[in-house]
Amino acid sequence: MEGRRLPATNCVGFCLLPSELMEYIFIRLASPDICRLRCVSKPIASILREREFVRNYNDQHRSSTWLFFYNKPADHDDAALHGFTDRSNRWFKILVHDLLKSVVDSGEYLYFLTASGSNFLFALNTRNEFVLVNPMTRTVRKIVCPSKIFSGPDTSIKLLIGPPGSDRFCIIRNQIYGRKSFMVYDSNADLWQTRRLNERVDLSLVSGCVLLSVVDWFSKRTNIVCVSQRDHPEAVSIWPELAYADSSWERHYPLHGYRVIGDGKMAVVRSDGIDVKNHRVRMLKGVELWGLTANGKRWEFISETSREIVARIKQPYGMMKGCLEERNGTIRVALMFNFQGVWDIIRLNYDIGRKNWTRVVLPSCQMKGSSMVGISFSNDLVLY
């Protein structure tokens, strides 16, 4: 974790505060700040490492949402994860280069796939390997995959962590597009298993499944594999059709719109082509939300951003990446734009119960000359 040490006089004065007051202050800090404070002084570290404090902190921050992106500057030694949480007003820089270089050769290209809690999953595309990093425990693990890893933002991968208090994890990934199977990796067994799709699985259970999405870029259709969360998971492959409100949707949808898919929801980014300084770029003009029906057979239109929201987020771009999650009744969409070599991020929330859009204002992350290689939502970084 990147940070500066506090002056010694400040540390001494702070340590004279009642322990209850210090805990009251600490429990409201973001977890990267907690990790830095553990290095300030032994009295502070002893409070922050107490089991009761760690348990209370994790319980209170369990519902927190983090947005992470991974950038790789021209100087590869400065590769870092950047994270933002609703409980703070700034981006946190999480240095992972020292951890990664212990298992990744210099010059290898890493792609950030997804995150869950304090665990971050990367892909080494040239070697068909995954790398799991936990910066909170300072651990890293390389996982060899028996089949080729898709070169790019593979949205068909889920990282499941748990149960709480254990270091067990599970990776579920779709097979290469078109195959009737999926793959599961269990860290306890350190083994990949290939399992066939079961077409007899009850589709009414889609809401309780892990959903893996793969887009057929030729037909513009989406294949979703629904995997049950059991010790021996079953899965079914579905091809949801669009439930058009009228014929105009069918004419409009297939040809236009960048799609971000996750957790049974789909954000469609609408844009127009414009000319800027003799270059053809896109101008964002709105975001739509679609969701799977209960049986998983159709996409249904949910909502679209209001004119007020569009006026705040409208901007030109040349390239876009994004991620989406649904948790605790809220659908979160993050869109990362590149315009003339500068990256910026827009984040939107949709409250399902209130049917209301809000824009989450993010601190500027305008980075120039960096390669952005992955973006993902996650729940809070867990203290240990």
Give a brief outline of the structure.
Helix content is 15%, strand content 45%.
General description of the model:
- This protein folds into two domains: 60 residues, no CATH class; 319 residues, 6 Propeller (Neuraminidase), CATH 2.120.10.
- The chain is 15% helix and 45% strand.
- The protein contains eight helices and 26 strands.
- The strands form six sheets. Strands 15, 16, 17, 18, 19 and 20 form a six-stranded mixed beta sheet that branches.
- Strand 12 and strand 13 form a beta hairpin.
- The N terminus is likely disordered.
- InterPro entries: F-box-like_dom_sf, F-box_dom, SCF_F-box_component.
- It holds the Pfam family F-box.
Give me the CATH architecture of the largest domain, please. 6 Propeller
Cα-based radius of gyration, to the nearest Å: 22 Å
Q: How many helices does DSSP assign?
A: 8
Number of structural units classed as domains: 2
The beta-strand count equals 26
Arithmetic mean pLDDT = 81
Portion in beta strands = over 45%
**By helix and strand content, what is the structural category?**
mainly beta
Straight-line distance between termini: 15 Å
In helices, the fraction of residues equals: 10-25%
Main attributes?
single chain, 384 residues, mainly beta, Neuraminidase, 2 domains, 6-stranded mixed sheet, 5-stranded antiparallel sheet, 8 helices, 26 strands, 15% helix, globular, disordered N terminus
Topology readout:
Elements: H1 8-15, H2 19-26, H3 31-37, H4 42-48, H5 51-60, E1 65-72, E2 80-85, E3 92-95, H6 97-100, E4 110-116, E5 119-124, E6 129-134, E7 139-144, E8 157-161, E9 169-174, E10 181-186, E11 191-196, E12 209-216, E13 221-228, E14 235-238, E15 241-243, H7 247-252, E16 258-262, E17 265-276, E18 279-292, E19 298-304, H8 307-313, E20 316-317, E21 319-327, E22 330-339, E23 342-351, E24 356-360, E25 367-368, E26 371-379
Parallel strand pairs: 15-19
Antiparallel strand pairs: 1-2, 1-26, 2-3, 4-5, 5-6, 6-7, 8-9, 9-10, 10-11, 12-13, 13-14, 16-17, 17-18, 18-19, 18-20, 21-22, 22-23, 23-24, 23-25
Organism: Escallonia herrerae
Protein name: F-box domain-containing protein
Domain F-box: 11-57
